[in-house]
């Protein structure tokens, strides 16, 4: 199985419409190169462009949904389309990730559970998701997480309990905490004996330089590939069977004592 993480630069100089078109083209270019394509968090607005959340919020089946469903089916790939600022029919906002099948059908939507910002930004502007979400691909079961979620190991353990073998993290992680990003991605892979595919953004928006350095880690904690700081497509080959062999050969998950389901 091949996965491409599209680490785009999110900058204010580019309109949301233009970025949406550019990202759709990049997804289409993955036809034949990847089975699964992953995009970052809130790439239409930027994860720190708080004012734009309200201005650019869209219904679940809004313009980003439409463009990404079409890009997935044109390319014939599974597409984790990153997240959008979703406006619920009741008016509240959520940071919602979308996963499309190669025929362009929505297979999963995940509302970010842990909102970032403490008492400001996303934490006050957006509602919190409540549900863990997994989606079955032909070769692996994917568990969904978004950015700040990476700091909460219990979410990932819950996804593993729900059958996840590949953990996809869509993010807009800032450069100033890049060391945490790499460390936590590896930790989540090792402790859950799962692949971690973590896709962030490049560039600077709302005055916050982004970390880039999207990363793919295997169930033994080995880094299969890591992007640099700029815009880049990171394509990595994965052997999905490595989850089962790692869990069989080093069965630490079976030795859980606390919180076991
Ligand atoms: O946890 C962090 O350091 C970054 C989190 C973040 O930027 C986000 O969730 O948008």
From TrEMBL:
Keyword flag Acyltransferase = yes
State the CDD domains in the record: nitrilase_5
Protein name, entry field? Acyltransferase
- Does the keyword Transferase feature in the UniProt annotation? yes
Q: Can you give the residue ranges of the CN hydrolase domain?
A: 1-240
Family membership, please give it: Belongs to the carbon-nitrogen hydrolase superfamily. NIT1/NIT2 family.
Under Pfam families, the record lists: CN_hydrolase
Which branch of life, at top level?
A: Bacteria
Protein keywords? Acyltransferase, Transferase
Q: Which GO terms describe its molecular function?
A: acyltransferase activity
Q: Which residues cross the membrane?
A: none
